[in-house]
């Protein structure tokens, strides 16, 4: 656990959730401000309670659900202030009518650091307070990726040991290279020496087995959900000609996903790590071709949340990373689309264990993204093994701060949730 989290141990914050009508919002905000409360978030919602949306209590005559407009307020305050605040709320919000839709609950932090709610709460977000940046990993792999043998349990237990707040599995799907388990025909295997290697250590050329993947993710949430938040993600290794397959996948499983990484892992069905893609091209040519594919993908495909390891090609470039000036123009075009679509990019901390000199993507690229107005950003280790989980995450946070970023995001059902850095 980091020092900031330890130090925040005694802070003692609470959150008060209030459900109320719109009318009383302005007077209540005035009172709260006078009482010195500044941490207020307001949502507009529709809802009903035991009265099924009727204004007076007569449940036997009213079985149909009717949704009424509601206003929800979240107030963050110090624990000592709770009882005074509750008194203030009762005074301000009491109507005397049953079924007036007014209610509140108080949630006091259960952990020693800034966490203020149980993870199994129905509320779709967590709030880090007391200057404790969220510690999480939004790019990691398990036994459901062709190139990892690590069970989800091992990754999760490591995440808990590291004190992570949240982790999102993003196992591989690479149409064009790999088949779905349900596709007709033989499954290909790779790895080993081709003679004496047992099949268990070979890699199947397959995508995630979707039904088993989601079933296991839900089992993991049941087992570990009180210790760490676990999210459902996938990493799409996408190309323009494989977009229809991803659209189909999203149609079938999109509602089970919180988060989708968009990666360019191969172009023209040729992979980078094997060197196939670079063969017969100059450095300028294969870089140009790589970013052109990325541009064409982000123009045509909107089913992702975050563009992963934007300059992945640099990791495998035998000539070393290309000069930023040569790719700045096309990256600007790409980022303008990403930002306009409300999508983001990631800082991928695998650069440390690959021994790269720069970050992934390079600092110039992160700076460019920010200068164009990019704010949605996630951090991920790309760990295929527990030893690399959340690798150098605090270094990554420091670098982002140096570059002027003030927030990082997590995702819930493709909705970005910003956390202060
Ligand atoms: Zn990747
Ligand atoms: Zn990955």
Architecture overview:
- This protein is α/β, with parallel strands linked by helices.
- It folds into 2 domains: 3-108, Alpha-Beta Plaits, CATH 3.30.70; 136-420, Alpha-Beta Barrel (TIM Barrel), CATH 3.20.20.
- It is built from 12 helices and 17 strands.
- A 7-stranded parallel β-sheet has the order 5-6-9-10-13-14-15. The chain has a 4-stranded antiparallel β-sheet with strand order 2-3-1-4, with no helix packed on it. A two-stranded antiparallel ribbon has the order 7-8.
- A hairpin with a 2-residue loop joins strand 11 and strand 12.
- Helix 2 (25-34) runs antiparallel to helix 3 (82-93) and helix 9 packs across helix 11.
- Bound molecules: zinc ion (ZN) (2 copies).
- One zinc ion (ZN) binds next to loops.
Give me a quick take on this structure.
The protein is an alpha/beta fold and 421 residues long. The chain contains twelve helices and 17 strands.
The level 1 CATH classification of the largest domain is Alpha Beta
Uncertain residue ranges: 1-11, 50-62, 109-132
List the bound ligands. zinc ion
Largest sheet: 7 strands, parallel
Kindly report the spatial arrangement of strands forming the biggest sheet.
Answer: 5-6-9-10-13-14-15
SSE order, one letter for each helix or strand: HEHEEHEEHEEEHEHEEEHEHHEHHEHEE
- The rounded Rg comes to 24 Å
Task: State the fourth-level CATH superfamily of the largest domain.
Answer: Metal-dependent hydrolases
Number of strands: 17
Beta-strand share of residues: 15-25%
User: From the 3D coordinates, which CATH architecture of the largest domain would you assign?
Assistant: Alpha-Beta Barrel
Which structural class matches the secondary elements? alpha/beta
Shape: globular
* CATH topology category name of the largest domain: TIM Barrel
Secondary structure tally, helices: 12
* Average pLDDT rating: 82
Percent helix range: 25-40%
State the distance separating the first and last CA atoms: 16 Å
Domain module count: 2
């Amino acid at each position: 656990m980091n020092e900031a989290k330890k130090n925040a141990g005694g802070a003692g914050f609470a959150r008060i959730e209030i459900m109320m009508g719109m009318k009383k919002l302005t007077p209540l905000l005035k009172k709260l401000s006078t009482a010195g409360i500044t941490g207020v978030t307001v949502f507009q919602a529709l809802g009903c309670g035991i009265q099924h949306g009727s204004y007076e209590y007569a449940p036997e005559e009213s079985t149909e659900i009717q949704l009424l407009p509601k206003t929800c307020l979240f107030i963050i305050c110090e624990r000592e202030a709770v009882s005074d605040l509750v008194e203030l709320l009762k005074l301000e919000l009491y109507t005397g009518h049953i079924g007036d839709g007014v209610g509140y609950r108080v949630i006091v932090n259960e952990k020693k650091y800034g966490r203020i709610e149980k993870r199994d709460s129905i509320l779709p977000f967590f709030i880090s307070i007391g200057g404790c940046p969220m510690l999480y990993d939004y790019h990691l792999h398990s036994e459901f990726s062709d190139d990892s043998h690590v069970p989800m349990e091992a990754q999760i237990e490591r995440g808990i040991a590291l004190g992570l707040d949240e982790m999102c599995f993003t196992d591989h799907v690479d149409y064009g290279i790999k088949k779905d388990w349900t596709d007709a025909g033989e499954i290909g295997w790779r790895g080993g020496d081709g003679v004496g290697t047992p099949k268990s250590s070979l890699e199947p050329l397959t995508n995630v087995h979707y039904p088993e993947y989601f079933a296991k993710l839900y089992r993991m949430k049941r087992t570990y959900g009180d210790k760490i938040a676990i999210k459902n993600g996938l990493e799409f290794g996408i190309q323009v000609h494989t977009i229809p397959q991803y659209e189909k996948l999203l149609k079938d499983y999109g509602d089970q996903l919180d988060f989708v990484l968009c990666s360019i892992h191969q172009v023209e069905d040729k992979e980078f790590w094997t060197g196939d893609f670079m063969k017969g091209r100059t450095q300028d040519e294969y870089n140009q071709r790589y970013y052109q594919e990325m541009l064409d993908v982000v123009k045509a495909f909107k089913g992702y949340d975050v563009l992963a390891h934007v300059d992945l090609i640099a990791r495998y470039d035998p000539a070393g990373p290309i000069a930023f000036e040569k790719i700045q123009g096309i990256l600007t075009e790409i980022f303008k689309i990403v930002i306009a679509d409300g999508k983001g990019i990631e800082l991928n901390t695998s650069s440390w264990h690959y021994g790269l000199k720069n970050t992934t993507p390079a600092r110039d690229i992160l700076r460019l993204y920010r200068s164009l107005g990019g704010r949605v950003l996630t951090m991920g280790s790309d760990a295929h093994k527990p030893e690399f989980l959340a690798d150098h995450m605090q270094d990554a946070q420091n670098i982002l701060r140096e570059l002027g970023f003030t927030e990082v995001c997590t995702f819930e059902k493709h909705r970005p949730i910003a956390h202060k850095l």
